Amino acid sequence: MAPRPLPSLTRDQIVAQAFILLEEEGLESLSMRRLAGKLNVQAPALYWHVTDKAELLGMMARDIYAAAYAGTDAAQDWRDWLMQFGRALHASLASHRDGARLCAMARPPSPLDAQIQASRIAAPLSALGLEEDQALAHQAAVIAFTLGWSTYEANGPMRDFLRQIMDFDATFTIGLEALVSGLDLRRPG
Amino acid sequence: MAPRPLPSLTRDQIVAQAFILLEEEGLESLSMRRLAGKLNVQAPALYWHVTDKAELLGMMARDIYAAAYAGTDAAQDWRDWLMQFGRALHASLASHRDGARLCAMARPPSPLDAQIQASRIAAPLSALGLEEDQALAHQAAVIAFTLGWSTYEANGPMRDFLRQIMDFDATFTIGLEALVSGLDLRRPG
DNA sequence: ACCTGAACACCGTTCAAGT
DNA sequence: ACCTGAACACCGTTCAAGT
Q1: Which 8-state DSSP code applies to residue A143?
Q2: Which CATH code fits A74-182?
Q3: What is the reported pLDDT for A155?
Q4: What pTM did the predictor assign?
């Protein structure tokens, strides 16, 4: 009765619990009301910490991408970096139920200054010798391929069908290698 | 042959009206109730023609893919076919509001026999000399890349951000070319 | 065969009011 | 500052009943 404890909600707590709920029930059942229930709070309470559900999903997607960057170690060259990053993103998307669908529908949080953001994103590849334009284009290609692939992988019936006719993980790696090799061909020199 | 007393609903009508509603209001507002309203019918009436909303979305996704295949003409070789198909799919996804998100969440309709379906899908590339395994793997790679790319393109804030730092269409084509070239490298001979 | 009316069990979000 | 209670305007889906 009357549970009014000192620790109040934080955005991090909300996101963490949202991931738990996602794992347990799937994206369809990830509602603000259920999430609030898990946090022993009424649904409107969430709106003090978060502007709307889209922002919450955006924060979750941000975490999934962040895990991919964190899983990409120091690389020999930009091709190595892209391969590592593609595999890490693939793993990160697969590590959360409906991770790919979540990222497919999430809007990016806080549109900061585009140029600053761009050079931050390009930084790891720039450090390996790519110009910023190329760094962004190549990374976008790898993300698109990986997100698209993971989308199919996350689609139950589609996955069951494709599993019967190909080795899913091996074919992903082959495709990723093909993409990175192809990007290499376009390099001057 | 036998004349019907009144023109009743058909699945095709429902799908056609769903595309109109999608264009006008977006995926968020594509509800069974609104769709029924547009068809001058009550919502439960739709459930006589369609098992559920997921099936309806599946039929819409099927049409989007079908347009991509229809937009792929006779090709010189399998690389040409993949390039054409990638561009046609890109165009088809972009031609409907939220087309990529729709395909990302739709489940494929009617899981027929996997082997039969597989050879149907592989047919155009098999005719150009690819073995069925390669045909499926290469087509899956192109679809994944294109769907993933279109997903970002359809994401309003993300698109606005990326537009500032790259030429979206040109970079798509470059990535697609890189992917297909890279697949070519893996060909024996 | 095909559709309506009414209902069930939900949603996201707002907002005055409490603490 | 942080949360509740109550409400608004919706959802997808089921099902008995009508035609």
Answers
A1: H
A2: 1.10.357.10
A3: 78
A4: 0.93
